[in-house]
Amino acid sequence: MKKVSRKQYVLTLIVCFAAIAVLSVCTITAFYRKAARDALSLGESGVQLQTEQIDSYLSRAMDAVEVTAITVEYMMRENATSEEILHFLTEESKYYKQDIDENFTGIYGLFNGDYLDGIGWTPDADYVPQDREWYQEAVAGGGKPVMVQPYLDAQTNTIMVSISQLLYDNESVISLDVSLETLQEKTEDIQLNGQGYGFICDKTGLVIAHSDRDQIGKNYQDKDMKAVLAKIQANGNEDSTFSAEIDGEKTTIFANSVLNEWYVVMVINDDKLFQGIRSLIISDILISLGVYIIIVIFCTLSMWRTEHTLDQLDATNNELSKTNNTVMQVLAKTIDAKDKYTRGHSVRVAYYSRELAKHMGKSEEEQEKIYRIALLHDVGKIRIPDTIINKPGRLTDQEFSMIKLHTVAGYHILKGSGRFDEMAQGAKYHHERYDGKGYPSGLKGDNIPEYARIIAVADSYDAMTSNRIYRDALPQSVVRKEIEKGKGTQFDPEIADIMLQMIDEDKEYKMKQTEELRRKILVVDDDEMNFRVIGNICKDEPLYQIYGAESGKEAVDFLKSQKVDLILLDIEMPGMDGFETFEQIRQITDAPVAFVTATRDYDTIEKARKLGVEDYITKPYLPAVFLETIHGIMN
Questions:
Q1: How big is the CA angle at 109 (ends 108 and 114), to the nearest 5 degrees?
Q2: Disulfide-capable partner of 353 in 385, 458, 485, 516 (CB 3.0 to 4.6 Å)?
Q3: pLDDT per position as a tens digit, 435-488
């Protein structure tokens, strides 16, 4: 056996280094661009959310004025006295402040020539309502609610705004004063991952609310923010995102318009905005260097052990074949793991596809081939955002368009190797329809590859026979009717007939997802605080139902009457500790158990592992690690 020469060895290292360098540069560049876009998108979404909340708050005040105006106009038409109208305004002011919003400070106005105030304020003798801005703006509004220029209350140092409306006689005006403290609280929440600050200003530059309360009441037309405000105003009422330099630092500005009157703005330092991205890039570079070092070591060892390795080539090839099958299974589970509502989908579709191929008279080799193709039919979902895949409600048209991209994405992921060409075709065309109305290419009839037509039937069947968070698997009769309905339009009629045959053979309706999506988790801990911590960590996981037991005995009693999917067991508890409790639990149920404890002792970990404990979670919990651990155990 010839030995690898030093020249070949050095050449191998050079080629590997060049390949890793090119791959790293391409990957990091693409990652940085996408991560930067995602960061900006998150900022825009955050400001948009705050804008919608502020818009809703102000709209509620306008609605209050409109509703009150209707009643007052009715009273005026019925010749109600000023005392009756004042009584109504007084009661409405109390109602709005106590039951609607404490920041709705009072209703007042000019009615039939008399100034009436619902909170009992009596103006000076020289007070002329018609000269006041709240009156003049209402007249200019022509009967629609208008928002008057905000002002700073000298007594309370609070920004106030009046919402006024001209009444039917074109002389009377009703007005509501609103304290903007609620908007101030919302403004203080304007941040992106704890970074940046927010403010609200009107078109004149007056700061209405600001994360730094000292800035309230200032006018940014006269400050360093003048250039920023000019850019925001140049975009009119459109949302805008742009870069600007503030106090010598590069920043990113996110701005939205509220009711075409005010601007909601978030300012973030660019270094802080992209700090996490840059840290990840440095980590990727270090990982790439680590990979290269590993390659160097590997190549060196390979040079020394080539002859021995070649002697075991046949055994290695056999092992590699098994590994490839395992990797495909793992990859399929990875795909399904993105969608917490369709657990096991890829494996079931692969199974149904193989059964269809078997009933079609395919050879065992062809059956296994279609199984492998179907196993990775949804690999493209790796490219679809988790927020869309795991959205519990109906998708928007844009979101559904994003979902459709998984066919093309899967094709490009798999098409790089000749061995995966057919898998790539299956990934791309399994959503084509027999009548040509499918996607992505609109292929029709037998122009669609046969294995894609098989997968299409299996995929639709599994979608109907799988449990969802909002429903269980559909009744078998309904599924059969839908398959029958799709013959010749959505499905190849011959393959659809075979599926109907399989359905008819399945008398006990075993071809469906039987496992429950929702997971019951029992937390056994003598510290009530840990129940709240775990409940808070799992609050955004609708499939997890958390139960608690404060002692080992209580847990054992609970498990005698309840079935759970996971038990989180504290080790150090008074009376019966975690190990004793575990032994008693095993006499009742084989549900997986993970220890949760503040003890960081390897011997304890090993003892738990040997007893059959699934994992060991230390306190205080890292939420991401905690969720991934329990997900891994239960799935």
A1: 120
A2: 458
A3: 999 999 999 999 999 999 999 999 999 888 887 766 778 898 999 999 999 999
How many angstroms separate the CA atoms of 173 and 108, rounded? 9
Backbone φ/ψ region at 509: left (φ over 0), alpha (ψ -120 to 50), beta:
left
- Which of the four pLDDT bands, split at 50, 70 and 90, describes residue 1? very low
CA distances from 488 to 152, 285, 358, 457 (A): 71, 53, 21, 12
Alpha-carbon gap, residue 259 to 298, rounded angstroms: 64
Element spanning 444, H or E: none
Pairing type for strands 566-570 and 544-549 reads: unpaired
238 in Cβ contact with 257 (< 8 Å): yes
C-alpha 514, offset from chain centre: 27
Q: Helix, strand, or coil here: 30?
A: helix
Residue type, 467: N
What CA–CA distance (Å, rounded) separates 69 from 564? Answer: 58
The string of pLDDT tens digits covering residues 219-254 is 888 767 788 888 888 777 677 888 888 877 888 889
Residue with tokens 């969608």: 339
Query: In sequence order, what are the residues at sequence separation of 6 or more whose Cβ sits closer than 8 angstroms to the Cβ of residue 537?
Result: 621, 623, 626, 627
Instruction: Kindly report the backbone phi and psi dihedral angles of residue 277, in degrees, each rounded to the nearest multiple of 5, phi listed first.
Output: -65, -45
Whole-number Cα distances in Å, 606 to 40, 577, 600, 602: 46, 17, 11, 6
Residue 438, sorted as left (phi over 0), alpha (psi -120 to 50) or beta, turns out to be beta
Using the predicted structure, report yes or no on whether residue 342 has a pLDDT greater than 80: no
Q: Tokens 């203080």, residue? A: 188
Q: 308 burial class (0-12, 13-18, 19+ CB within 10 angstroms)?
A: exposed
> Would you say 303 and 285 are in contact if contact means Cβ atoms under 8 Å apart?
no
Is the model more confident about 498 or about 47? 498
- 441 sits in which H/E element: none
Element (H, E) at 602: helix 602-611
Q: Which secondary-structure segment (H or E) carries 91? A: helix 82-95
pLDDT (average), residues 197-208: 85
Dihedral of alpha carbons 297, 300, 304, 309, sign:
positive
Distance CA 593, CA 522 (A): 10
For residue 488, report the phi and psi dihedrals to the nearest 5 degrees.
80, -10
Band of the pLDDT at 314, cuts 50, 70, 90? low
CA distance 301 to 297: 6
Neighbour tally for 15: CB within 10 Å: 10
Q: What radius of gyration, in Å, describes the C-alpha atoms of the chain?
A: 34
**Residue 114, φ and ψ in degrees, nearest 5:** -105, 135
Give a three-class secondary structure readout of 180-249. Answer: CHHHHHHHHCCCECCECEEEEEECCCEEEEECCHHHCCCEHHHCCCHHHHHHHHHCCCCCEEEEEEECCE
* Token couple for 358: 């078997």
